[in-house]
Write a structure and sequence with these properties.
heterodimer; A: 362 residues; mainly alpha; Amino acid/polyamine transporter I; globular; B: 69 residues; 71% helix
């Protein structure tokens, strides 16, 4: 395998891309005008998820998810769990690719078949994966600060359209819906950070690992929260009829007939942030599979696994309604075992083994 | 379309496969071939319009189903 090193700063930026890259998911649909409360709740829940994941990583410094699972569960069970993780990463790629290609098909490339958009985009991501994690990390150093500035700058221009009454009546959400929406948002926004367990051994300073991931997670969450607050404040109830409320919001910018058509900037930001997100997950998936099969080099798997990912995207979902329904109803239940339950069980196994060992010593 | 995809697969498969074979990485070659064949079969079926059942379990809303909420 390639010997790469990335800094905690680059890791933090990549975490931002994973969290903020979920902006195409139907976030506002889950809790409508109380979405901002659910995002804050999701950040708290997500912290628990990340705590479990990073604790696992710090207990086995220098080991990735595949090696950790094999050490904890033994070779045979470890391989089975790792194969499930590989499958999960592939599903993640399929979901992201479908999201992205659908977004571009609906808004810009109406005449282009959706699979063509998906294939071209995945080829670009595959090329980044071929070049290695260092290249993806360096790319994030340029792209993420520009995106943050562009999005915040663009949103600043919409302040004149703010209607704070759109938040009222707040806290109308029931406890049941609050828990359901928050757990869904946690899985959609923060749980995907699990793929960094494949990349964590590449960090050159392990002491800053946890802080880098947490800062990245909170900054990414803050960006999503900011977007959501703006959408509610400007669009109000009309956000429910738009598939991409953030884009709808930016379309309203028209300052002095000069600052208009700003959606191009936001669409470009979406493109780059989703590119980084898919590249990271793609890298994690290929590395995971290569580690399972004990390959010396992961590069031969980049092309076939990418093609399988694109195929899976169109096998899983027939249309956007199907995809949308799965994200809202099925995704959290499918993803939470990988994102939280398995790491938590792993920590429990470590703890039980440790306590048994100390008992024996006594 | 099928012809173009087949040529692309053959080209990439031959280039990558030959490199692995020449380096005597037979295990890598086998794994690569396995995934290439799988990827090609799925692409072929998709292009032919064959309906492949979704591998996702029919999870609608587990919270409601389990009566948790």
């Amino acid at each position: 395998m390639e010997q790469v090193k990335i800094s905690p700063f680059q890791l933090g930026l990549l975490v931002i891309s994973i969290v903020a890259g979920s902006n195409l998911a139907p976030i506002e649909v889950l809790a409508k005008r109380d979405t901002w409360i659910c995002i804050i709740m999701a950040m708290i829940l997500g912290s628990i998820f990340i705590w479990a994941q990073t604790t696992l990583a710090t207990k086995y410094t220098g080991k990735n998810l595949v090696q950790i699972n094999e050490l904890i569960y033994g070779k045979k069970i470890g391989i089975v769990i790792n194969l499930f993780y590989s499958w999960y990463f592939m599903q993640l790629i399929a979901l992201q690719i479908f999201d992205f290609s659908e977004f571009y098909k609906n808004l810009m490339l109406r005449e282009t078949p959706q699979p063509v958009i998906a294939i071209v985009f995945l080829l670009l991501c595959g090329w980044a994966v071929w070049k290695g994690m260092e290249v993806i990390a360096r790319c994030s150093e340029i792209v993420i600060p520009i995106i943050i500035l562009a999005v915040i700058g663009t949103l600043f221009l919409i302040i004149p359209n703010f209607k704070f009454t759109n938040f009222l009546p707040y806290l109308q959400i029931t406890t049941t819906d609050l828990i359901r929406s928050s757990s869904s948002l946690t899985a959609i926004l923060f749980g995907e950070i699990i793929c960094f367990l494949m990349i964590i051994p590449m960090i050159n300073n392990h002491t800053k690992l946890r802080s880098a991931i947490f800062i990245g997670m909170y900054l990414g969450g803050a960006l999503i929260l900011l977007g959501s607050v703006y959408v509610i404040a400007v669009l109000g109830n009309t956000m429910e009829i738009s598939s991409y409320p953030l884009l709808q919001l930016v379309r309203l910018i028209d300052l002095g007939e000069f600052f208009s058509r700003m959606e191009v900037l936001v669409t470009a930001s979406f493109f780059w942030i989703i590119f980084l997100k898919i590249a990271v997950i793609y890298y994690a998936m290929v590395l995971n599979t290569a580690e399972i099969f004990k390959l010396k080099n992961m590069k031969p798997l980049i092309f076939p696994l990418g093609v399988l990912g694109v195929n899976l995207a169109f096998i899983l979902f027939d249309n956007s309604g199907d995809h949308y329904s799965f994200i809202v109803n099925g995704y959290p239940q499918m993803a939470i075992p990988y994102q939280f339950v398995i790491p938590l069980i792993s920590l429990l196994v470590i703890w039980i083994r440790k306590s048994l060992a100390t008992k024996k010593e006594i | 379309m099928i012809i173009i995809v087949t040529i692309a697969f053959l080209g990439i498969g031959f280039a990558q496969g030959r490199s692995l074979w020449q380096q005597k990485n037979y295990w890598e070659f086998t794994v690569f071939l396995f995934f290439m064949v799988m990827a090609y079969v799925f692409s072929f079926l998709q292009m032919k319009g064959v309906e492949i059942p979704s591998p996702l379990p029919p999870v609608k809303d587990l919270f409601t189903k389990l009566g948790i909420l």
